[in-house]
Amino acid sequence: MSVELFSPEPSEPDPLDDRSALLADMILAFQAAAEARGTPTAEIRKGQVALLDAFGLLGDNEGSPPSVTRALEPAPPTDAELIKGFERFSRRRGLRPQTILVRRIMLDGAARQLPDGLVGATKGQLETWLDRRSLSDRGRSAYVSHLKAFYAWAVDEEELPNDPTRKIRAPKYRRTVPRPIPTDELIRALDAATPQMRCWLLLGAYGGLRCCEMAGLDREDVLEGEGLLRITQGKGGTERVIPLHPDVMAALVALPMPESGVIFRRPWCRDRWPAHSLSDVLNTYLHALGIKSTAHSLRHWFGTTIYQLTKDIRLTQELMGHSGPNTTAIYTKVDSRTVSPAVLALNVELRHSKPES
Predict the structure, then answer these.
(1) Strand partners of residue 74
(2) Contacts 24+ apart (CB under 8 A), 206-209
(3) Contact assessment for residue 326 and residue 334, using Cβ atoms and an 8 Å cutoff
(4) Is residue 218 classed as helix, strand or coil in its secondary structure?
(5) CB 242 within 8 A of CB 319
(6) What total of structural domains would you count in the chain?
(7) 79 DSSP assignment
(8) 8 in a domain, yes or no?
(9) Which domain does 90 fall in, by range?
(10) Residues 6+ apart with CB under 8 A from 194
(11) 209 and 300 co-located in one domain
(12) Residue 216, Cα to own-chain centre: how many angstroms?
C-alpha cells in the first residue's frame, strides 16, 4: 500500500534537503519491508509517523521543510489489497482452504459488481447486491456471514473506518428434514459409475462424507490396516475417524489410489479436485441418469440409514461429524416405519379406555 510523499519544490531551496531526502528513503524502505511482512496499513502509518517524530519533523513546527510538514496521508486501500490481507488473516486463523477459497471468490465478485467496490460500499449497495443474486435463505445467510467477517477484520485492522454490514441481518431459515437418495436410485447410480464416480458415491453413502471431505482425502488418510478412514477437511476445520467400509476400500483400490498424496485429481491439470467442482460433476452425473437427488443426498442416506439401524443419536452424530446433537436430531424425524405404529397405538388406547355405559 503506497503512501504519498511530498518532495520540496526545486524552485524553493530547502536548507534541510539532505535530511528530508534521507527521511524519505528511510520511510520508503520501512514501508517496503513492512508490506513484505504483511503489516497492516495502520501499523505502517504509525511507524512512519514515529520516524518523522524521531527527526523532529512532525507537525507544523517552525523551520520544518515543506516536504514533511504536509500530512502523510496514506492512499486508500484497494479492494485487491484488502482481499489479500483478509486471506492472509484467514490462513493465520487456520480456516480451511475451501472456506478461504469460497470467501475469496465471493469477495472478488462483490468487488467487481458493487458500484463503489468493497472499499466504498454502503449498506444499501450491499443489500441490493445480495438481492440480485437470488440466493436461498441459507445461501444469503452464508454470504452475509462472509461479508461481516471481512468488514469486521478491515475495521479492526483500521483499514476501513466503518462496517457497512453492521446493521445487515442474516435471514432466518427453517431446518428441513433430510432428503436421502432413494436406495434403488443409489444402486442404479453405482451400476453405471466409472471407478472415480463409484468412489465418490460410496464415500457419500457408506461414509457420510461431504464433497469438501472427499476432495481433501490423501492416501495417508486411508488406514486400511486398521479399517479406518481419517477425514481431515471436516466442516469447521474438525477431524474425525470413521470405519472404512469394505466396498469403499475396494473402490479405492480399483481407482487405483496413488502411493501417497492426493487421491482425487482433475485429469487435465492433475490438481486436487475443488469441492465445488467435485459436487457439480457428481450432481451432473446423477441428473443425467434422471435422478433428482444431489451429492449431499448421499450423506443424508448415510445418516438416515445409520440412525434407523442403531437408534443411537450420539453414534450418528459422531459418524456424521456434527458439532452438536441438535443437527443430528433431524435424522430421528424421518423413519415413518417406527412412527406410524406409535400413532396408530393412540387410537387403540383411546378405544380401550372408553368408559362402560
Answers:
(1) 3
(2) 206/245, 206/247, 206/248, 206/302, 207/242, 207/244, 207/245, 207/248, 207/302, 208/242, 208/299, 208/302, 208/303, 208/306, 208/319, 208/320, 208/321, 209/299
(3) no
(4) strand
(5) yes
(6) 3
(7) H
(8) no
(9) 79-156
(10) none
(11) yes
(12) 14
* pTM, to two decimals: 0.64
Same domain for 325 and 216: yes
Residue length of the chain? 357
Given pLDDT bands bounded at 50, 70 and 90, which one contains residue 352? low
Q: For residue 272, what are the β-bridge partners?
A: 265
- CB burial of residue 307 (10 Å; 0-12, 13-18, 19+): buried
pLDDT at 57 over 50: yes
Residues paired with 228 in a beta bridge:
223, 243
Q: Annotate 188-227 with b (16+ C-beta within 10 A) or e (fewer).
A: ebeeebeebbbbbbbbbbbbbbbbbbbbbbbeebbeeeee
**Residue that is written with C-alpha cell 397405538 in the block:** 345
* Cα gap 52→59, rounded to integer Å: 9
Domain assignment of residue 225, yes or no: yes
Q: Give the torsion sign (CA, 340, 345, 348, 350).
A: negative
Predicted confidence (pLDDT) per residue in 143-156, tens digit: 999 999 999 999 99
**What is the domain-level CATH number for residue 296?**
1.10.443.10
